[in-house]
Amino acid sequence: MKKILFIYLLTMVFITAYAQESSSKRLGFGIYGGIQLPDDVNLDTGPWFGAFVNFPTGLGWSLQLEYNLWKSNENGADKTVTLSEFPLLVAHKWDIDNVYIQLLFGPGIANVSSENSIYGENSDFSLSFDVALKVGLVITKNADGFIQLRKQLTGSPNFGGGLPAYSSWLVGLGIQYSLN
Fold first, then answer.
1. Which of 2, 85, 173, 179 has the most neighbouring CB atoms within 10 Å?
2. Using one digit for the tens of pLDDT, what is the confidence trace for 104-129?
3. Residue 89 forms beta bridges with which residues?
């Protein structure tokens, strides 16, 4: 019963906030790319790409559904680790003239796969948690560009089996387009 009440109250907060602020009711979507810097010394730096849809809820808050992918080799060898993730992030945005700062955080589901790796050749679904900071610049009424710094934590849900946990810093550039 407490869970149902909590979900109901959280939904009402977002609906009320959305109804009070009409100027930021603009659905946004975008892409980003950059590099991932793994904490694991066995993995090399590799590319990182992603796409997202941003659902504003009002008063600077929004929900952001993403898909991102990074790939890394093990110390320059032909051994590859790939992570694809679907995080659902809660975001808050602070506007300062044509510049903004946005903080994002939330859980996700990731698929980690390895080929010819010291971790074996397998694939495993994992839970993940992301925390990100964006600094953006408004380019036009509907478009803005941003720099993003993100900490991504991914671990196996079966704790003790499957692939190991991964922790990476992700740094990238992106662009967002907002619908009228």
1. 85
2. 999 999 888 877 555 555 677 788 89
3. 64
